[in-house]
Amino acid sequence: MNDDTSALSLTHRAYDALLGMLEAGSFAENARLPGEESLAKKLGISRPVLRLALERLRTENRIYSRKGSGHYVKPKGAAPPVIPYGALTGIPDVRDFLMFRMTIEMEGAALAAAAGQVNCAGIELAQQRMVHAFDERRPGIDEDLAFHIAIARASGNRFYALTMESLADQMRLSVRLIRDLSAQAVDVRREAIISEHAEIAQAIAGHDPERARLAMKAHLVGGMTRLFGEKM
Questions:
Q1: Is the distance from CB of 76 to CB of 29 less than 8 angstroms?
Q2: What is the spatial distance between Cα 196 and Cα 193, in angstroms, rounded to a whole number?
Q3: What DSSP element (H or E) covers 206?
Q4: CB atoms within 10 A of CB 209
Q5: Which helix (H) or strand (E) holds 66?
Q6: First to last CA, the chain
Q7: Which residue(s) pair with 66 in the sheet?
Q8: Secondary structure class of 134 (helix, strand, coil)
């Protein structure tokens, strides 16, 4: 591994670690992050590597800086959509959107499974939160969305993550339609979703790209079947 590749790998690992802290709520919204020297020591990296990771977080609108003061946590939901896809306009549009998601998310899941140092914590946490929401008889839509975005982030390719984050509003609507319009009994539907998510998470944790790809396909096809009442 050459020096440039090593630096990129360290930067990616530092980014994953910082993102994990932010997602876990280690720092409150608008809270100041520890100083660069302290953070670098905590993560076991150099300050130049840390700065690259922080720059990526700034670019993704997860943190912001104040001149002479340091880095601060951006409130959740503050990041605007990167690509203005626009609202879904009807059932045919929803079908097209789900087909589009399939092409993106199957490969994102495969990449996450293939990642040498994949961080599954975000995926596992989102799955646990969705199951907890279901146990409390809540819709779990945001938790479902967080699961899919966590997989995109674990792919190691920031464009998958940025695309999925940009589709958040459309994803919420499509999930809500599947939940509201499905002819399946609620308990049957919830058990299917939990099982499908678990299969995806296990495939990624097991570093099995093809299994992860097929598990994601099965999940999204399952969603279309639940909505349209037909085998896709």
A1: yes
A2: 5
A3: none
A4: 18
A5: strand 63-66
A6: 44
A7: 70
A8: helix
Question: What does the block give as tokens for 232?
Answer: 């896709």
22-26, 145-149, 176-180: which has the highest mean pLDDT?
145-149
- Set out the domains of the chain in order of their start, with CATH numbers: 3-73 (1.10.10.10), 91-228 (1.20.120.530)
**Cβ-contact 147, 109 below 8 angstroms:** no
Separation CA 151–CA 112 (nearest Å): 6
Assess contact for 175 and 133: CB atoms under 8 A.
Answer: no
Residue 184 vs residue 38, higher pLDDT: 38
Strand partners, 73: 63
Helix segments in 33-115, DSSP class H: 36-43, 47-59, 91-114
How far is residue 71's CA from residue 89's CA, in Å, rounded to a whole number?
40
Residues 123 and 201 sit within 8 Å (Cβ to Cβ): yes
Q: Give the burial class of 51: count Cβ atoms within 10 A of its Cβ; 0-12 exposed, 13-18 middle, 19 or more buried.
A: middle
**110 has a pLDDT exceeding 60:** yes
Radius of gyration of the chain (CA): 19
Q: Which residues contact 58 (CB under 8 A, 6 or more apart)?
A: 64, 65, 71
Residue percentage of the chain with pLDDT more than 90 = 34
CA 213 → CA 28, 52, 108, 134, distances in Å? 35, 31, 8, 25
Give the span between the Cα atoms of 158 and 215, in whole angstroms.
22
